[in-house]
Amino acid sequence: MHATQTSSVGSNTAQLPQVTEPRNPGMALDMDWVRRVQANTSAIERRCATLSARRSIKKDHQAAWLLKAVSLIDLTTLSGDDTEARVQRLCAKARQPIRAEMLDALGMDGLTTGAICVYHEMIAAAVTALHGTGIPVAAVSTGFPAGLSPFPLRLQEITQSVAAGAAEIDIVISRRHVLEGNWQALYDEMAQMRAACGDAHVKAILATGELGSLRNVARASLVCMMAGADFIKTSTGKESVNATLPVTLVMIRAIRDYFEATGFRVGYKPAGGISKAKDALVYLSLIKEELGDRWLMPDLFRFGASSLLGDIERQLEHHLTGAYSAGYRHPIG
Question: For residue 201, how many other CB atoms are within 10 A of its CB?
Answer without folding.
Answer: 24
